[in-house]
Request: fold
Amino acid sequence: GERDLDADSYEKLENRFVLQTPISDFFDAKGGVRVDTPEGADRWYGTVGIVGLAPQWFEVDADLFVSETGDGSARLDVEYEGLLTNRLILTPSFEINAAFSEDREIEVGKGISSAEFGLRLSYDLIDRAIVPYVGVAYERKFGDTADFAKHDGEDYEATYIVTGIRLMF
Reply:
């Protein structure tokens, strides 16, 4: 989720319920549902994808989404965990989103809609089950998606601080 502290509201909240099953030693297939709230129209999606560990220890997460209105999109997320110590980890990441059709209601244009670069510093606690992190991210919208943002007086690019806790169970 993304929260605007100045406006004291959530900008984007993506919720997923996904089942995952191994398809090889290093990759899993996944499928499920996603719902995006609270800004703009709530949108439900069916999702399928793969997640796993590519050569050279790159973590890859690729997803295809089809919305309740029939609009398709895709996302590719790639991360690399650089161990500074056994528990202190620096993680650069890259995410790119593409839409197969325009959806004006949620202000997403056809083609590559956005990209995000990030850098997180995390520390593994309690058998690596609890991992607090802090970092920075840069996000930029492209094409019609950027035009929609400009038309609404929003920024089409932003740099922000990220913080959170990853829980493994």
